[in-house]
Write a structure and sequence with these properties.
Length: 115
């Protein structure tokens, strides 16, 4: 009790809710029960993580969720932080292994092994 809950709405859940809202396909016997369960769970969350701003709009069209409760975390990482860039590999290896080594002998301190 009184612990904030953060949830994550997946794209597959949005697709399922959209399909149910348009009229569940034949054979989806428990479709409305699942939709209600997801709506109930989402409404209890203090924050909802989604992958994109477009998912916020889709979510709020499907259930009464305040968009301010949604937080966008794009694909779980910041592409600009992890994007490839040119590296002088020889200089990098010299820095890591010779100038500022962090390797160590079994009973030694970090930096006790250098090249």
């Amino acid at each position: 009790p009184h612990v904030p809950v953060v949830g994550h709405i997946h794209g597959t859940e949005l697709l399922m809710l959209e399909a149910i809202a348009q009229g569940a396909p034949t054979g989806w016997t428990h479709a409305e029960a699942w939709a209600e369960r997801i709506r109930h769970w989402a409404s209890a969350c203090q924050r909802l993580v989604v992958l994109s701003k477009t998912q916020i709009e889709r979510l709020t069209n499907l259930m009464p969720i305040n968009p301010e409760r949604c937080v966008v975390i794009s694909n779980g990482f910041d592409p600009s932080t992890f994007d490839r860039h040119e590296v002088d590999r020889i200089a990098l290896w010299r820095q890591l292994l010779v100038e500022h080594p962090l390797g160590w002998h079994p009973d030694g301190e970090p930096g006790s092994v250098a090249y």
